[in-house]
Predict the structure.
Amino acid sequence: MKTSPDQLRSHRWFGPNDLRSFTHRSRAKQMGYALEDFQGKPVIAIINTWSDLSTCHSHFRTRAEEVKRGVWQAGGFPVELPAMAITETYMKPSPMMYRNFLAMETEELLRSQPIDGAVLMGGCDKTTPGLLMGAITMNLPAIYLPAGPMLRGNWNGQVLGSGSDVWKYWAEKCAGTISDCDWNEMEDGIARSPGHCMTMGTASTMTAIAETLGLTLPGASSIPAVDANHPRLATKCGRRIVEMVWEDLKPLDILSEGSFENAIIADMAIGGSTNAIIHLVALAGRAGIKLDLQKFDELAQRTPMIANIRPSGQYLMEDFYYAGGLKALLRELGDLLDLDCLTVAGTKLGENIQQARTSNSAVIRSLDNPVSAKGGTAILYGNLAPNGAVIKPTAAEHRLHKHTGPAVVFKDYNDLAARINDEHLVVDENSVLVLQNAGPLGGPGMPEWGMLPIPQKLLLKGVRDMVRISDSRMSGTAYGACVLHVSPESFVGGPLALVREGDLIELDVAQRRLHLQVSDEELARRRSEWQAPERRYERGFGALYAAHVSQADQGCDFDFLQAGAPTPEPEIH
Ligand code: FES
């Protein structure tokens, strides 16, 4: 045991024999606790992103009680602290705008109060990076408890996957191949239990990344939300975090260049969401590690994709769990990983996965029989994206990996919504759809608009994929030849702002190239005419966000959260 009771951080609040500590103790007693409940015990914050609108976390009130059970068992004192539930479904313009807000809230909840360690409860897309970014910066012992995926969707005997099948069947509805009645029945069957999206969307990707980084207990990210193993996991998190406080095992003892490289490799092997790139860059930045976009491409080249999960594969997260889950997948990756990296369990990654087995090789493939020989992400550069852009080739029709076509330009999402299905729109299957002003500042919040809809007249002709380019993101559950995260974004005058109707755009995934076939002289002329759009916010969080958010290639963190001297512990007077 490294830490003694009088070295606990909470001891500064509860221990001294002075006026302030009298108040702190008397107020704990006000809630019915006795000295024996909290004195000299690790105070464990259970940061709970539950809300009535946080649909993926609807089981969290019960789970928080199950975490408390473990904390009590191990001799700690649990306190539940609600944090903003940045829910993917309802928050507009995009929960991405509030990720850094959750990170700040997490950091300050821990800093300003008598907390010795934390269990972080999240799962819906941005909650994982938001909670972890704050916890890494605060650097108190912390365990991440992922919400777990929901059960498979079901309609008319068919398995439905979150997001992916919404886009797929919406296109069919627009093409007239399914009825309104079919569509309404799907609404009843696609989300039928607590838990996060059960495709390999951003939620499943980020929880797998949290586990690979060593920030969850082994196997935690794959357990379905409603499986009885999930409450058992919650209680185990409660027990373990108390031990971690005594061991003084903190996030920065666990995170390293090796663990981030492992996370990128796992991301490629699961065919993870493109959103993970932004979040990983931001998370690494909080740990003082610079992750270059090139690193993602380099590791993608040598990491086969072996998880056969939608949208890049066939199955869903429930199948993944039954097939052995992330532990089995990491075991398949074997020596591609740095197995010496430490985890919150106090053991090394290699030890955690030693006994793991793959029980269904159709879902978790082996390295010599992958779904795709290379990882699911490619980083593109060119005069249209000097600081990089992202594409998920495994989720795009192969014929579009190399394509040149004339641009059809939409100046923002409203323009897109107004004209995309206009029968007079000049567009065919070879066109390249371009959406401007949808980035971190332009969206604002870089909404998941990157899977631009296929014009209805092309859907009716049977077209299901086209090259689409934007500075926005794409849901991890989405698919198609969508070039995303174009950086710098058009709102700040990036080259995407200079694209005009009919310009030829060349995409070449193999060459990692995204090129606007317009001369430098003409681009310079257009730049001299370009006018910056008006600021979107004059006040409030929007103004803070706009003043400090970084571009996609830098992780969209706030500049003042990635830099500066550490914030001191609060004085207690
Ligand atoms: Fe919460 Fe998809 S809506 S994970």
About this structure: Residues 229-247 form the longest helix (19 residues). The longest strand covers residues 402-410. The mean pLDDT is 95.
